[in-house]
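dumping the sequnces here before i forget
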Amino acid sequence: MSSRFPNKLAAVALLALLCGCHRDQQQPRGQPLGETVPAAASPDTIFPGGATPAPLDPRAADYEHNAYAIAQGQQLFTWMNCVGCHAHGGGGMGPALMDGKWRYGGRIDQIASSIADGRPNGMPAWRGKLTNQQIWQLAAYVRSLSGQVRKDAVGARADTMSNTPPQTETIRKPVEPADSAQ
Amino acid sequence: MSFSGFQTMLGADALESSNFLTLFAVFMAVCVVMYLLVIAALLIGMWRGRSSREQLTVESGRHHETEPAFRTALIGWTALILVGLTALTIASFFTDRSNASVAQNPGLTLKITANQWWWDVEYTSPDSSKMIRTANEIHLPVGVPVEATLQASDVIHSLWIPNLAGKQDLIPGRTTDIQLLPRKIGTYRGQCAEFCGIQHTHMALDVTVESKADFEKWVAAQQRVAFAPTTPLQLAGYRYVTTRECSACHNITGTPAGGTIGPDLTHFASRRSIGAGTLPMNTGNLYGWVADPQSQKPGNHMPTIGLEPADLHAVVAYLETLK
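..and the predicted 3d for all of it:
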């Protein structure tokens, strides 16, 4: 028996623990203070003749697979009446959010940009109404609706009554390419 | 029997709490008597030792007999238990009866909704122009029976104003209620008594019991719309509050700010505390709270906006006018 084996095991266990930390890392203030959603280098891809999107915003990693951010976003989704147009992800007056199709890009920074600046035909701009951190949190939740977020980060139940299985029970869809605009 | 203090179960400042205090005294007296008797019996048994019991052994042929003194004591003991339990049951029945009688004719009705981590208070009235909405504080007229219906919007909370009454849980999706008949003028502190998340500690309710005249004055002040800003700084604050992040969650009656997610701010500066009892209300604390609520009450649902210094001065100046 190798005496180094327990050490390796400990290292693996430690790594697993660290992953767990990231999953539920809470940053109630937003670091650094007053962080901004993408504005200068737009992540948008809808331009005449097409465009390559800017590289993924590094802050996306703090929100994308973070259970805390997704849960906060879920609460904001109800509080800010996103339900009024998008229903609970199924869509109504506004487009559905729980499919894998994104008109303005499905990357978290692209979704954040859609929320912050609004989109034609009714989507209002939330910049200045919500803090930038809240916009990131909402984007994290909206992205999780499409089933592209890790299963251990999504909420096990919705805040509202629901006739669909919880997100932890649905099939994870493959992550769509960045320029998944229709 | 009563004790002073703004958060004590021994205050007896309302009908309910004084009933409970009496009941507590009855229970205590009965239990102390029984306890002393048990200890006395134990000591007598130890003191008499083995010698006197040796006469009733198998060898002496009298093991089935009981000493006459023991026999009397055991019968007496059983009778005492019966009498004691009956007395406690009757006392408990009359306490409940007296408390329930308050509900029959309430002079004031409230609706209290618990949120993570603050109290939403509504004074209901058939006349909608007389309704009042406030947060984290209640004012009650002395000697008027009050009925409060209780709801929770997220998780289970529990309303506990120890000076006035016992706890009552607030459960999402259900309506519970509590009745109060405050008897003494004073300021008390209520507290959430069911662990409800990271800021459970900072979920206090300021309770003011006042004379009927003072209460009417308070009601009249609460029914007024918010004061308009007068100085340029206050006006700048008004513009920020009503058009930016603040109004997405907070309501200020008489202005375009109409959010319903956070506490109503119409008469915010007239309250005794900020953030559901987190900080006493004063200018310094207000600056601290508006600048960075997440460092004052980490995890609460008010985000740190990161206001520019000029905006911070303006917002605080405007909030201070909301008397």
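The CA atoms of residues 148 and 174 of chain A lie 6 Å apart.
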